[in-house]
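Posting for a labmate who doesn't have an account.
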Amino acid sequence: MRLAAAARHPRHGRVLTLLVVVPLLVALGACTRADRGADADAATDKGPAAELRLGYFPNVTHASALIGVDKGFLAKELGSTKLTTQSFNAGPDEVSALLGGSLDAGFIGSGPAINAFAKSQGETVRLVAGATSGGAQLVVRPGITAPDGLRGRVIATPQLGNTQDVALKKWLAEKGLAIGDGSDKVRVTNADNPRTLEAFRGGEVDAAWLPEPWASRLVLEAGAQVLVDERHLWEGGQFPSTVLIVRTRFLREHPRTVEALLRGQLAATDWAAANGAEARAVVNRQLEKLTGKALSQPVLDRAFAGIQLTTDPLARTFPRLAKDAVTAGVVRSAPDLAGFVDLRPLNTVLAAGGRPLADAAGLQK
């Protein structure tokens, strides 16, 4: 466990102390030989799993997971397989659980998904589906109207190396803004999303690159303004903010269980598209259960307006996402993503329903 240094705002006397967990190397040490390498790829089908341990976040961008759990779509398709769930604040913590073997599958951001694949030398996890496109923004204090207005300011992201952290640092690099102390640089710090909201209100943070509903909460509850909607940085306005990854060995040993999970996710996605108002209410109910507080209707509506639920992982975007992490300074070199994607279970489910198949963009072995 690593503690971030306390960051003092250059214009305020308050100190923001934040906890940053970087557990990936520890998790890698916890991976068993049976969960890695050719052994995992060569594992044979053992039929339905007795249990599926699933991770996700209490975010609007994880709506298909929240709806799937609340409405019973996942449990129904899994049948005799017990569904056990666990929520996380950000991707690196969930990656730790996946690489450590305490999770079987997880809805997660695209950045940590790539990192999990790279850190395990392309062995431990596979991307099996998308979940959400869109739903992330850089929100700032009123008066900050251009990138240069961020010099000497403090910007928060949910966690070091998470999807929004990479997106922010890549964007800063493109804008010629250096990260560090001083009036001509930008201070980047990491905090749980609820803490970022408090810090923004208290003047300790000037901006934040956040997933929904937190971007909407800062705008509607704390007076923030949008400087960047990440959709505008991608062709067609689509980028994978949430995807579904599965441990490779679990996928090989229990392919029918993974297909069942995907059928449940697809059912939740379809239901949400046909029942918009009720879908938002269900997500809000789950958020209240997981965080202790429901969202206001304006925040909920604004957050949903910025996302699209889809099982398409938008695999064509991942080579760029991998390069973005290098530009952001999060990793030294972009990993080879060959074999990262395995859409065979998803396409089996899609084909059974007469739907168009998802494209692996050459990333599937």
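Reply:
Got it, the structure tokens are right above this. The first helix runs from residue 24 to 30.
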